Structures
1.
Amino acid sequence: MWQPGLAAEALTLAEFNRGTAAEMRWMWVDRFTEFVSGSHACGLKNVSLAEEVLDGYFPGFPMFPPTLVIEGMAQLGGVLLAEHFGWEKRVVLAKVGKAVFHQAAKPGDQLHYRVVLESTQEHGAIASGTSHCDGSLQAEIDLMFAFLDDQRFADGPLFNPGELGTMLRLMKMFDVAVDAQGKPLDLSDKL
């Protein structure tokens, strides 16, 4: 299991942001709260007035765009799926099968995401996700993921070396991640 201070080459948040400013990395999950390999992942998203996306989405009624709730759950699901396959697959969101929103996410809300890996196939996977706010169901989403192969798509990683591992450490994934038997997950050398 990764612990603070173990990786001397690890970037600080400031170094990470400085190095990727031109690439505009947007993460829509603030912290992992649970991660069971091959099963499910849970995380938090704090909705803040400080986020630019709230400014112009719905003038006069600041709310977190529903598409970014979908993206946050897709990020959790993508990490869950990539880890399940040993970080060997290039995972992308292929389709949103269903998206039902029961209430708006407003400034000050904390969204509790849960994504469950329903099935995997040769070329992708299906996951279901829920978002809760103040104990009430906020959204229900069905996600379909695809694996990019080198024959049909450009080869190479989706992230620069070390970036994904840094993002996952900042979101405290390895503080809560366990394998199917409940043993802590180590930071993979593939990250």
2.
Amino acid sequence: MLNVPFVSLAIGPGLAATASGQTPRAPAKATTWDKKQTGTQFIEVKPGTFIMGEGKDAQKAEIKTGFYLASAVVTQKQWKTIMKTEPWKGKVMIKEGDDFPATWVSWDDANAFCKKLSESAKRSFRLPTETEWEFACRAGTRTRYLFGDQADKLGDYAWYYDNATNAKESWPHQVARKKPNPWGFYDMQGNTWEWCSDVFQSKLLMNQRVTRGGAFFGNADSCRVALSFLC
């Protein structure tokens, strides 16, 4: 699969929480896992049910097994530590630095990262499913955005067209510089699209991968919690 620009990845170890069938609640205090390898911070997301999607496409979904998810997307430093490569090097609309997102990363690359990290850390890591991603992004909310149905506060939580590209800063910004969602996750709206593990199949679209979250060049509507983009 070709590299897709401005798509990054959030990762989570495949560790189960103990409870099941609960409604969403704030997770425990963030726990740092794998500090020796990357210093990545993972937050526990407990099981629960929620309304996934919006409008006529909304439906009840359940997370039966808890999981941990990185509090922010993988940074360039974290990627280089594990993969020893720089896929973003020399590409357009890129800033380089330890805390900038690792971009120009294909879905296959993202899974290779998870595999190498798992081998290094002796713990299982993978991409989140689309359902897990939306559950963690919503963090108990039911609105179009984390803060409500109108986009007036989006700039407080996200890098998107108005405060990035239109402000002559047309590149992915350093992670965790905006407000987190209620459960402590950063940049789940805007900045870079994020890979999920799902593979979409239909008669017209074969083997399409799912991304979520929007990007720095997209408008406010493209940063809605429920929006998916296929690559």
3.
Amino acid sequence: ATSVAAFRQTAPGRYEGRLSADQRGSYLLTLHEDGFGSAPATIGTVPFVVPYPREYHELRPNLPLLSRVAEETGGELLRADRWEQGIKRLMTPHPAKATASRAIWQPLAGLGLALFLADLAARRWPRTALPRRARFAQAAPIT
């Protein structure tokens, strides 16, 4: 949506005005100079951002919530003073929890290639002995 707002001069080379953005997000502000008697000239375009509310700007972890989630899901909270041990324990496979793993990208890539080639062949394969123009002539007319 486009809106127009007037700016007033508050000092030499300084203009101020008020804008209201209905939603948060990124906006582009394009400034035009009134051309007295001619078309308005574009001065420039500047971006500005309407940020999320302060409640979403929480940078500290919510430890009570994280510990409750860890407790309810059978996990554990990594302590900040011993994070290296926690990461090592996280990355080390546990024999009771280990499952067999196998790379499946090769069969899936082969299947994709086979389907692609089958699609190409189906599109190029002659359906009948009729030339292409004859097939289109047999089609029902568009009304």
